[in-house]
Every structure is written in C-alpha cells, then in structure tokens.
Amino acid sequence: MLQALVFLTLTSIKMTLDSRRFLYGLFFCCITLVFWGMMPIALKLSTGFIDPVTFTWLRFTFAGAVLVIWQAQRGKLSEFRNLTRINIVRLMVAGTMLIVNYTFMVWGLSYLHPGAAQLSFLLAPLFLTLGGWWFLKERVFWQHWVCFALMGGGMLLFFHPAIQSSTGLTGIGFLIIQVSALGWSAYALIQKSLFRVLSPSNILLSIYLYALVVMLPFSQPASLLTLDSHDRWIAFFCCVSTLIAYGSFAQAMHYWQTVQVSACVAITPVITFFLTEACVGYGLFHDVIFSAEADQLSLLGMGLVVIAAITVQLITPFLEKRRIRALHTLTVATDR
Fold first, then answer.
1. What is the 3-state secondary structure (H, E, C) of the chain?
2. pLDDT tens digit string along 10-34?
3. pTM for this one?
4. What is the pLDDT of residue 241?
C-alpha cells in the first residue's frame, strides 16, 4: 500500500513537471518556427549582395557579441570553468557543424526556391530523430515513425509543383541542402549532449565565438561597408533572427525530446510557404521571390504534415505514461 502511494505521488509530481516542460517547449518551438520560416526568404534576398561565408561570419559575430554581453551581465560565464577537454572538443565539433549548416544553406538558396529549399531540408528532422534514438538512447515509438512517414508523404504532395517543374540546377541545390541538413542535425545532437555541463545560451555563445575566429580568414568583412541601406536591413534581420531562432531552438531541445522538436521543425516549410505567398500577394521582392504554385494536392499535403506534427506532440506524453505504468507493473510483479 505504501509503495503504491509513493508511486502515485511521484507520478503526480512528474506529470506536473512534464506539463510545464511541454508548455515551455511549445513556446520556444513556436518562436523557432516563425523565424526559421522567414529565414529562407531573407537568405534568398541576401544571395545577390554578399557571399555565403562572409554572411555566415557576420551572423555568428553579431549573435556572439550580444550573447557575451547578456551572459556577462547575468553572471553566467562562470559555467565555463567546469568544462573538460572532451566538452571543449564537442563544442568545437558542434561549431563546425553549424558553420556547415549556415554556409551550405545560403549556397543552396542560390539554386533553389525558398520553399523547395525547405522541402530539401525536410530530411533534417528525420536525421535528428534517428540521432536521438541512436546516440542519445531516446525512445522512439513505432507511432512516431508512422507520423514521420505521413510528414514525408505530405511534404512531397505539398511541393509537387516545384518537383515537377525542377531544372538541372535543382539536383545540385538538393545535394547542397542535404549537407546543410546533416550539419544541423549533428550540431543539435551534440548541443543536447552538453546540457548537463552548460546552459543552452552558453553553448551557443561558445559555438558563435568559435565560428567567429575560424571563419574570419575566409571572410571579407570589408565588403559589408559597401552595402546600401536596403541590404543592411536584410543583413540585420538575418542576424537578429539567428540570435532569436537558435536561442529558442536550444531551449526547445532542453525541454523536449528530439522526436518532438523534429516533428515541429518539419512544419517549417509550411510556414515558409505561407510567408512566400504573402510576399508574392503583396508584390514584395517580386524580382527574387516567386510563387510556389500550390494547388489542392499541395494543400492536402500541408494538412497531412500539420496533422502528423500535432499527433506527435499529443501521443508522446501518452506513450511515455503507458511505458512508465508498464515498468511499474513489471517491477511490482517481480517484487512479488
């Protein structure tokens, strides 16, 4: 009787904490989705006035400078005293992977429509889920895989006009984006493995400062002085978006399992689609941004992606509770 009471009490506490973690994770994931949805459009606009390496260096430098000031004022820089050599190596590898992600994404947008680029990046959430399952030993249920299969099918339907009208350059762009997706997935997994020793903000700070130093010899900061006011606003937006989006993503990874974050990230192309169509509808950037020409089949695919992503969020807590109950039942039976 006492054992059952203790179990119920601990279960109730865990459910309350899980509810808070879910809401926090949802909040930060939504912020990430909004800014990542806008990012391909902004990056597409930037391809005409700055090279990918210099632009990536600028984004890292801006984010790193802001985070240094923020963390110093909060007295959080003392966390770095506890780093081991292995942790430092992990941070350097994570930084390298994020450099690959940023640079190759901008490069790929030279060949692809923003929506098509997001479609090509769709494998990244799957890479992240597989990595969380394989390296971090996170549990992924068969229901999750079904949802990811529905997302994949939905995205193919969603962007089938772009696929059907593809050109020879699309294949090159697709391969470039896949390198970016692998880099992003590796960065996210390494970042999650470091949460025990560093806060999400300090992990990003380390990565940004590392990238700032590594990329400087290959960048051309002087070219930034030649930008006109329009180009500067685009560059400034991308810098701010980098800081907010990746900060929110790091927090989401802190509160949610990788499978939940992956499902949310898979909705990003849908956000990009709506924002792209809004730009086309209002006649913004008409010489660079074009319509994805979505039809009823595309809208059906969009519905599948959204439903599958929501389903992952709804079933994950239920599946975890069922697994805990099964373990408790097995433990009680073993004790007897």
1. CHHHHHHHHHHHHHHHHHHHHHHHHHHHHHHHHHHHHHHHHHHHHHCCCCCHHHHHHHHHHHHHHHHHHHHHHCCCHHHHHHCCHHHHHHHHHHHHHHHHHHHHHHHHCCCCCHHHHHHHCCHHHHHHHHHHHHCCCCCCCHHHHHHHHHHHHHHHHHCHHHHHCCCHHHHHHHHHHHHHHHHHHHHHHHHHHCCCCCCHHHHHHHHHHHHHHHHHHHCCHHHHHHCCHHHHHHHHHHHHHHHHHHHHHHHHHHHCCHHHHHHHHCCHHHHHHHHHHHHHHCCCCCCCCCCCCCCHHHHHHHHHHHHHHHHHHHHHHHHHHHHHHHHHHHHHHHHC
2. 444 444 456 788 888 889 989 999 9
3. 0.74
4. 93
